[in-house]
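Appendix B. One record, verbatim.
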Amino acid sequence: MSYAKKYSSNQSDHRPRTKSLKQKNGYVLIADIGLPSSRLLPNKRTYAEQVKDCLIIFIQQKIFINNASDDIAIILCGSDTTKNSLGYQNIQVLWDMEKVSWGAAKCVNEVVRTKNFEGDWMDALGVALDLVHRKVKAGNIYDSIQIIFFTTFESPFKTSERTQKAYISALLAEKTSLFIVGSNLDQESLEDEKKMNKGELVAYQLMQEASGAFYSFGDFSASMLHCTEQPKLGAPWNVTLDIGSKIQIPISAYIKVKKSESLKWSEETSTEEALVDRERTYQKEQSNAMIDREDVISAYKYGSKLIPVSIEEEKHWSYKSGNRCLSVLAFVDPIPPQFGSGTGTKFIFPHRKAGVVDRSAQIALSALINAMAEAGKVAIVRHVYNNNTRLAIGVLAPRIKFKYECLVFHELPFAEDWRQYEFSPIITPKSKPSAEQVEAIDELIDKLDLSGAEEFDSTKMSDPYEEYIRNVIGFKVLNPDDPLPDIPPHIKMNLQPAPSLMEGAKDVLNRVQQLFPLQVTDNLKAKNFETSKRWAIPATEEDAEIEKEAKKTKLDETGEVDLESIFRTKTVIGVGTANPVKDFSHLLQMGKKPVEEVYEEMSKVIVKLLEDGGGTNAALMDKAKSCVQAYREHALSQGHVVYFNRWMEQFKEHVVSNYFTDFWQNYVAKSRLGLITKEESPLSAVEKQKAEQFLRLSENVNEIESVDEDEELLNLIE
């Protein structure tokens, strides 16, 4: 049975009447990769390569923006493979109507390229409509269905009036939209049908019936690259606004502004074959006997003692904030905006239930909002989101607009949250700007003002950081062995001022440059030159002679010998005990030695410093601590986490066996220089609890020291 007969005989809506638990969108992407797709575009890429990029971008956005909840199908027209339910030649269903995934992007990346065949684009559209019809009939419910066709309409095709009517009926029956991307049509062609070829004209007629549109590659890519997740109206927080003991107003609070959490990560442990399930076990430190999780309780260290605390005791002493509430504590003058804290803003409206507003609450809340606005006051409130959850103090400010009025909630900081910084004044008697300079800066601010500018619409801009992360993830999925890509041009463009804005401010920028000239300070330049040459070797004999004369001049002027100036031209060949941290940094920067060899030299220097000081010399122990800190920071930043942790375990054994416990407790443990945890680096497998336990010394090690401390305390008392 032909596709035309199939739909002309039955044009009823096959949508099932059962209610779906979670509705989604359906997309069918049709790509024409036949012979015409080999032609070059103005950007020096072939049509097929441009189509492949658009398909991958579309799939990537549906994974990130819609959390991979939509269904997608991919059909190739002009393929060297025939795979479809209608048996049409050179039409391949590459990806059936399934949940969007990276598998679809990989298939596109591997398969989509120009083929030496030609396919009938009307046949491809028929396969797409048949696919949609079967999926809907099988019980799938979609909020919307879109067919996106990438074609130039240059391949031969067959059609008839009956077929076109059947296609239009199918598009309308399933409420499917048809979009054409990458054709030769432009606005001028759309206004004059005589300038269209036969294929374009047929597609235009179908598109008009299906409420579709034509897109160029540039417009389609831009709409995908700058696509942002549409904010969803979450469930309101319903509570009673209490004013004193007698006034209670039912309200519904909605989140207006909240920090984005679109990128959600989950940690997994895996081998080359499969994922590995992680389990946490507990064991005694000395006997290594296994302990059940139920037998483990928390403990707090007080001095050198561990004080166990049961779950019941923790519940007993923990603070109980009480029932959920929003209670007014006082009405005060407006609070400066710099005191705002928290992670978001809430708008408070009269209580709603099933879309119906509580009329009494609406009248009472409106009276409160207008009274606060007329009096110029705001309300300090006590905020508890749920029973016995975190207590917050916030401010309610009135907001009155033409279409609505509400209270705006901002969280306020407690005393320990507030930081008061004192800085020296910018304007001093020596640096007071002239009236002309102030006028120039005022003009510059006016020229660069983005208020109401069309170039800057924050509601339509995506976070460039998240956008780049998505781009990197998509690239690594398809190219796992390649280095990370550069920042894409469209992201760089969003990080730069608009060209029109800078063009308008060109004159005032030149004026500011003239009024605020930059001057080079000779002393600063000489100082920076000396610093940069500290570890350098003279390139020529002439440079060496210049440095020699400089040292001689300095000695003649001061009468003192600068040892650092004398020896700074010598090459550092290893980590020494005189200046180990600088030697360590210099060797790593030079890169002439393997990193592991430099690490080994540093570890020997640390041990030597402790042994030379007998574990009691404060100066040497402080130098050893700086060495451990430098070693740890470099290993953490360069990914040598496992190497450092292995050395740290051996180092602790050496410290304990040689009774350098004072260095461990007062320098290593106090500065938190132990094992690198998985919270600090994903390359580490060390849990935070294990790292905390590692910094502690066993009671046997501290026994002698504890006795000495007790005796000293008794002597003081006596």
